[in-house]
Every structure is written in structure tokens, then in C-alpha cells.
UniProtKB/TrEMBL annotation:
A molecular-function term among this protein's GO annotations: thymidine phosphorylase activity
CDD domains referenced in this protein's UniProt entry, alphabetically: cupin_PpnP-like (cd20296)
Enzymatic class: transferase
A GO CC term assigned to this protein in UniProt: cytosol
One Pfam family in the UniProt entry: Ppnp
Organism: Metabacillus litoralis
Gene3D superfamilies xref list: Jelly Rolls
Keywords: Glycosyltransferase, Transferase
Protein name: Pyrimidine/purine nucleoside phosphorylase
InterPro entries listed in its UniProt record: Ppnp (IPR009664), RmlC-like_jellyroll (IPR014710), RmlC_Cupin_sf (IPR011051)
Reactions that this protein is recorded to catalyse: cytidine + phosphate = cytosine + alpha-D-ribose 1-phosphate; xanthosine + phosphate = alpha-D-ribose 1-phosphate + xanthine; adenosine + phosphate = alpha-D-ribose 1-phosphate + adenine; guanosine + phosphate = alpha-D-ribose 1-phosphate + guanine
Protein purpose: Catalyzes the phosphorolysis of diverse nucleosides, yielding D-ribose 1-phosphate and the respective free bases. Can use uridine, adenosine, guanosine, cytidine, thymidine, inosine and xanthosine as substrates. Also catalyzes the reverse reactions.
Length: 104
């Protein structure tokens, strides 16, 4: 899906790692939430509260989930992170991403 309709966008940005990772939260009428963001090249660690779907819209990213090996992902690919987990990423290039929060 390249466009979202009937959404609310939170004005305040989510800013991490001294501005090297930023995102905006979008809310849908059904209560679901996503963030649209950009990562500058670098290495970062994140933690989840709920299961997350990380869609890499553009860019080259390496990621590592707990207990797994590093994997490579490029634009138009998706990976999932379980709830209550930490994961590491290496943005090799500028990465454009969409994170969907999945309540199960």
C-alpha cells in the first residue's frame, strides 16, 4: 500500500539517537497505529512493547533479532519483531520505513 486514507497524524515527531532516527505516528479510524520514519546510516537498538511489522520502503538495512544471525533487507521488504523484544539494526544507507504495531 503506497497511500493511507482517513488517518490522523500526530504533529510531534518521535526523535531518537540525537535525530538520526525520526518518525511520525499515524492513527487509523479503527484504532490501529503505524509510524512512518527515516533512519540515517548508523547502528541502533530498539525495544518493542507489541509485535511490530517493519516494512522497509527504501534503503539498505541489516537487522538482528534476539538469538538470530544478522539478516539483510532492502526496499519493499518486511520483517517482524515479537512483542517485548530488543532488536538491532544497521542502516547502511538512508532507510525509509513504516512500522505497524500489531495487537494480538
Amino acid at each position: 500500500m503506497s497511500k493511507f486514507s482517513n488517518i490522523t497524524i500526530e504533529k510531534k515527531a518521535n526523535i531518537y539517537f540525537e535525530g538520526k532516527v525520526t518518525s511520525r505516528t499515524i492513527l487509523f479510524e479503527d484504532g490501529t497505529r503505524k509510524t512512518l520514519g527515516v533512519m540515517q546510516p548508523g547502528e541502533y537498538e530498539f525495544a518493542t512493547d507489541v509485535k511490530e511489522e517493519m516494512e522497509i520502503v527504501a534503503g539498505h538495512l541489516e537487522y538482528k533479532l534476539n538469538g538470530e544471525e544478522w539478516k539483510v533487507i532492502e526496499g519493499n521488504e518486511v520483517f517482524y519483531v515479537p512483542a517485548n523484544e530488543k532488536f538491532q539494526v544497521k542502516a547502511v544507507t538512508v532507510v525509509d520505513y513504516c512500522c505497524s504495531y500489531i495487537s494480538e
